[in-house]
Design a protein that fits this description.
Oligomer: single chain
Mean pLDDT: 90
Number of helices: 22
Number of strands: 0
Length: about 475
Amino acid sequence: MNDLNALQIDAHEVEQRTKYFVLIGVALITFAFGFYFTPNIRDLAEALKAICLHHSLANSDFMAIPMNEGLIGGAFINCGLLILCTLATYYVTDTKVMGTHYCATGIVAAYSFYTKNIFNVWGPVIGVFLYAAMRKRPLKEYSNVAWFASVLGIITSATAFYTPALLKGTIPSIVWGVLFGIIVGIMSAALCRYMPKLHRGYTVFNLGFSTGVAIVFMFSLYKAIGWSHDSYSNGAYLGVTTKSYNLQIGIFLTTIFLYQIIVGYLIEKNKQNIKPLVLGGFKGGDYDAKFGFGSAMFNCGCCGFVSMFYALATGWIAAAVPGGTAVGMGQLSGPAIAGIITVGMWPVGVTPRTYGTLILGVYTMSFLGGGITGAQLGKDFIVAGTAHAAGVGQLVVSGFVVGICPIPGDLGFLAGYVAGLMHTVMAQVTGAWHGWMTSYNNGFAGGLICVFCIPMLMLISKNRRHEKLY
């Protein structure tokens, strides 16, 4: 893999207003598809209400929870509104938008299809800004952190609408929900400054790790004082408990990724920067600063296509094997869309090469795990394995495994492949630790992989620069 710091590249600085316009363009695309799916304003309002009153626990599919397939456009409107809220925050705080801010906007867009909504995000956002004020730091230094931490809004929704001890849906429960959202926002902002010392830059989901630690503590506190939420099952998924919308969702994702590729190519003055980025592999780094905004966008679009085609291909494989079925396989549900958009809007530390290495490991472990479990139940090994790999849970893992792209970027293919295997296993168990009150479960699992497994992965790496770390 390549050493990012050793590359001699002339990055073209793009005006801030251009970056704002590009991201506003993404919001407009989501609005357009929202009105396509649900053209009636009243229906959209009903869908948004259902989304905002939902418990939002991890893996909630905002396109399926209204329980009316004609209302799935509400998730797209929720997405567009949250993108505009994020950009408004950047503008008000006089933030200079760089790669990490593009990531924060992208992950807000992604998670608006499950768990983040226009009600629950504000507690953690306020909490992060309060932390900045307590440290007497400019708010612009924490504007991206605030929106990364907004995933902790789940605690607001779960407390307000899914905690029996607080009389669900009452004013007191809502107040408590917002208050605890603010508290965990403060906690995650404090933790995120410390966590890089643990994972040493081998995950680009630093806030995923930080929020995971914060919410494990808060969930333990909730259980101790009798505030545990109702028992939780993943519930309804678009294309699994409803009819498939893969064609329409595929067109939506293709539009987003093609938009980034075309606009990125057009605004990039140093087009020679695109090839070494898209074909390279790096430990990390802000690609906007190093290669230029246009090149970074082009790379994002390419990564997004890799993730989308992987998700669809798992369904095709599951349907193609003798005895297999296409029903519910490889479906672009809300959680799967979130993973794909995250991959396709993350211009920091991610390239098709490093991401591709990880998803090979994910598919291998998903196939083996499903096959072995199925064989023990008397099912065909191959049918069970391919079906498991194409299920909602494994597609979510295949998207969010992107967080540990620095591992193959720095330590090479074999270490990255093994990391993909290990991440798939770890992500299956960590959700219970935090009561599904953070949808950065894979970010949390990836952080644990970095802390506990990087020393072992270094043993099989050909890159010896890492020895200086220890």
